């Protein structure tokens, strides 16, 4: 390993660095450091790095493969096993488990919170945790006064000057949430899925309501129920309001009738009504798969107005790919369904043009009771990312998108499946 690594290195300064092989090919980005807890008498040993490779897979790189950290990058040697990392035994994740953990000073001067961890390579080649960067919290009396240590002071202490974190309180979730603020909901959900159940709840409940809603939609059903059930009823209702109605309905379907009704009563009436309509449909029908809130406009609306609607940030790409043209009322179930205007047609038409002049009337809408297999065939046959769904009175009740169909076609545990074979680079 490069000699420039012989001095102390703090983990927070490594996070996000690109990891390369000796030929200069980028492997991924450093997300965490794995240490081995060796008990009170010995410093924790650094055993490897957790690297996020393309495809958002997190893999383990043994610390013995690290050649150098220089110019804001990490260089590794040899082959890297691309099997998804699975934590074992006494292994601990520095960012995931040790940052933000409350510790107690061994000299009796009080407590603090871990903000960073320093590690250093020994002469025998092993990397050990040598120090903690701690923010002092409430301390115990006279000793603190004697040293004039104020509350909130930050200091670096040796590893043996604090009570080992594993013996005190669990890590607060604040640091983990802050460190992963820019992570996409699906990737954050994957990180949550890999955590122990208790830790998953700690992190999930720390999220803002809208962020939690987006992440919940990406988790397996069992974990969605676990997290929602851990919230108080008022907050659970707010999170359900923030979710897409079809995802909220799927989650409520996993609860008892009594729990469903209690949460629906706490939700805003408009949001609850959308979800109630979806709950009425039998499973594996177009109605059970659709979103009841696609983009809907009257025929008199202009192309400029339609483009303004589909630009809304909260719309998924599939939902924003089409505008459904209907007679009033424009809330589902609408007045008579007239047809669809695809995004490409909007881009090719002058902004003042009315939607009524460019409606695609050739695309037959799906019936809300159509089986999911017919929905999939329709999207595949006409190369669609979304399709209209109407009831028996030809009123638009929603739209089904390709991601809804994929969720249905894939195995129930597709979010948690891993490759059977290890790969190497």
TrEMBL record:
Pfam families per the UniProt record, alphabetical: CBS, MgtE_N, PRC, SH3_actinomycetes
Q: Name one GO molecular function term.
A: magnesium ion transmembrane transporter activity
Q: Which residues form the CBS domain?
A: 290-357, 359-416
Query: Where would you find the membrane-spanning parts of this chain?
Result: none
Question: Entry's CDD domains?
Answer: CBS_pair_Mg_transporter
Give the matching PANTHER family: MAGNESIUM TRANSPORTER MGTE (PTHR43773:SF1)
The name this protein goes by in its record: CBS domain-containing protein/sporulation protein YlmC with PRC-barrel domain
